[in-house]
Design brief:
Protein name: Calmodulin-lysine N-methyltransferase
CATH superfamily: Vaccinia Virus protein VP39
CATH class: Alpha Beta
CATH architecture: 3-Layer(aba) Sandwich
CATH topology: Rossmann fold
Helix content: 25-40%
Order of helices and strands: HEEHEHEH
Distance between the termini: 43 Å
Strand content: 5-15%
Radius of gyration: 15 Å
Number of helices: 4
Shape: globular
Structural class: alpha+beta
Length: 135
């Protein structure tokens, strides 16, 4: 089934906003990934965002009724920058995200993901974040 997006769609997860920000290839198609430049001030290491996570997030948001993800528990393996995890969290799911690759395996990457999660939870009226590192 093809997911159609209209201006009336609500973008709670942020997938549409991210998709609009991704530069298009010369043929007009969405690129397979977006290089994310490091931002030392924000604590963001250089990484990449795979656009497949945008497509999956939009599909998971559009295929279910509003509130479907509220109270659901999600485990994302290979979360990369955490876009899918954060989007599902914005939809109400409790998400545990893991990443063993380069984008979040450093202390800086984990700290940035934890800070992003804390801001998100604060927007959702509180909550807690547990980040573990056995390294």
């Amino acid at each position: 089934r093809r997911v159609m997006c209209t201006p009336e769609d609500v973008d709670i997860s942020g997938a549409l906003a991210w998709a609009e920000a991704i530069p298009r290839a010369p043929n007009g198609r969405m690129r397979a990934w977006l290089d994310v430049e490091a931002d030392a001030a924000a604590g963001v290491p250089r990484s990449m965002l795979w656009t497949a996570s945008l497509v999956l997030l939009r599909h998971l948001e559009a295929e279910h009724a509003p509130g479907h993800w509220r109270g659901k528990r999600v485990l994302e393996l290979g979360a990369g920058m955490g876009h899918l995890s954060v989007g599902l969290s914005r939809l109400g799911a409790t998400v545990d995200a893991t990443e063993a690759g380069g984008s979040n395996s450093t202390g800086d990457g984990l700290a940035a993901l934890a800070a992003w999660s804390r801001r998100l939870l604060a927007e959702r009226d509180g909550g807690g974040v547990a980040v573990g590192d056995d390294g």
